[in-house]
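Record 1 of the preview.
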Amino acid sequence: MAEIRVVVAMSGGVDSSVAAALLKKKGYQVIGVTMCFNITEEKAKKPGCCGASAIDDAVRVAHKLGIRHYVLNMQEPLHKYVISNFCKEYLSGRTPNPCILCNQHLKFTALFKKVHSLGAQFLATGHYGRIEEKAGVYWLKKAKDLKKDQSYFLCRLNQPQLKQIIFPLGNYIKEEVRRIAKRFCLPVAEKTASQEICFLPRNDYREFLRQRCGKDIVPGEVLDQRGNILGQHKGIAYYTIGQREGLRIAKGYPVYITKINPRDNTITVGTKDDAFSRRFVVNNLSFINKPIKNKVVLKVKIRYNHKESAAKLTPTGNKISVEFKKPQFAITPGQAAVFYDQDKVVGSGTIEKVLE
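->
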């Protein structure tokens, strides 16, 4: 086993640290790599997952485990593939998912170049997911710990990548991982997990957009379901479908954003029932194995904290029309729709538009 070399993406957190420890215990030759985005942590409530303190934590864990460790500057690809898309999507009235893009372009593309340059055969991360091989096909599956499952964020992996990836935590629950960290005496065993987007250390995307592209964000009208003007919004980039807070609209009952229209810079609001839809179209398709070519019924997840629901998928060229059996709340353009066959990821796409 010692001749098999694995690069572990170490964020300085408990999960990736335990992933490295488990692999070393199994006899792999482990090398730690931490991606550095040159993110400031000044005035941050909590340290980000890729800031200076996170790198320090990863270095301490690598020292404890007795493994080599490198810091990789990923500032340029972060801006190119993630931050530029983040700003563009919000300015277009859509809600992006930067973690999926980070996994697709940085962790499992750019980072793979480092894996190969170090002569390693595999890349491992602390993600909660599982990879299973059957008849020569590699499948991405949900983790044992469904509360921590991250298969949604890993939905754009492909066969060549899956062949070279290891998810050591896929068959563990979070409590077990904590216990393992303590058993290995890892210096991050008690560290709180980061729930923030790495380039938003204060977790304030509106302030980030205001600083980056405030000149392109202009106020507009808030409309009701009939097109009547109810008030003004601060700029469509600051809102998302299903949002209730911050609308400053008094109707005598709670109102939710049901539509964002970038063409006329308007936001439409209605009751919570108005924010439910059944049909939408996805583009930017990606599949774990073979593309969907015929109508099929699968479970579909429209955001990370959404419980997937049965839907009919109809391929139409390079897009797929999705129709849920039951209406779902806040189907949001820009978010990923991930297709599941039981606990197996079939593929995914980006929500382009909601049809009703």
